[in-house]
């Protein structure tokens, strides 16, 4: 099979398409013939691939992907709903170390422990299903595990048209919260209005703390000065869910700041799939690239102005 391997340190110049063997699975694992993987452009710069001796692992990129099950290990439970031929979406959450392979979905085939995948939403294409797991779970866990978002609360989403934030916007509207989003481009404004966002603020023109107050919760995918402004808009019991990485000291010292890293949760991902099938949530795809255009796909992400998710098709899809 073909696979996209990254050879850190470095950016897109260190991406290589290699020919290699299809992975062998353990008893509790599932092999998926991949259709598409989502592009996480920040993955090129993650610390997790640095080894103690200063050298780097060279992973197959991609944490979440979609495809068709090609092989099921003997200890995968029958009631998991996973059989040869099942169309699935998977998320391997590489940030949480295990002894398993850190190779991801940008390849002809990928394997994962069975609890890291669920049947894809019936109403979505296989390719579009690759856009769901990591981004939708991040928004779900931020708003419902790290906060208890409910009707009538005010939710501020920064970088609201981005691949992760657009799910927070939709979850906010789904539960009846008042949703305020920040963005800068006409395309972003249109997208946010189409999801019924109550107020869109152009972050290039206004300071958040000069126009907002008493916000209950901020879903923050931007960081830096945006977080500092957003903290001033929060109510005293509010929370700023900080996604960008470990916050700098001046932000971290505010007890209302909560940083977390998304993890796979099959039950939550299945609920997200149901909500998509019920028409309550909808993935937003910025663009879909052919496998051989992997460098272009990551370069698109690195612009920092994608509207929804960037996807990479598997080889020969
Ligand atoms: N902790 C976790 O588990 C977790 C999970 C997922 C993502 N993340 C992190 O979340 C961050 C966002 O990643 P992403 O891939 O979702 O989005 P992204 O591609 O980095 O962001 C794209 C969006 O950000 C907007 N934007 C750019 N600069 C902005 C600014 N100064 N203020 C407000 N909006 C701005 C753009 O809107 P316009 O084009 O309209 O300007 C665009 O829609 C990354 O740091 C990523 O590592 C963390």
From TrEMBL:
In its UniProt record, a GO molecular function of this protein is: oxidoreductase activity, acting on NAD(P)H
Record has Oxidoreductase as a keyword: yes
The Enoyl reductase (ER) domain sits at 10-312
Q: Which domain of life is it from?
A: Eukaryota
Query: Is NADP among the key words of this record?
Result: yes
> What UniProt keywords apply to this chain's record, in alphabetical order?
NADP, Oxidoreductase
Pfam families on file: ADH_N (PF08240), ADH_zinc_N_2 (PF13602)
Annotated protein name in UniProt: Enoyl reductase (ER) domain-containing protein
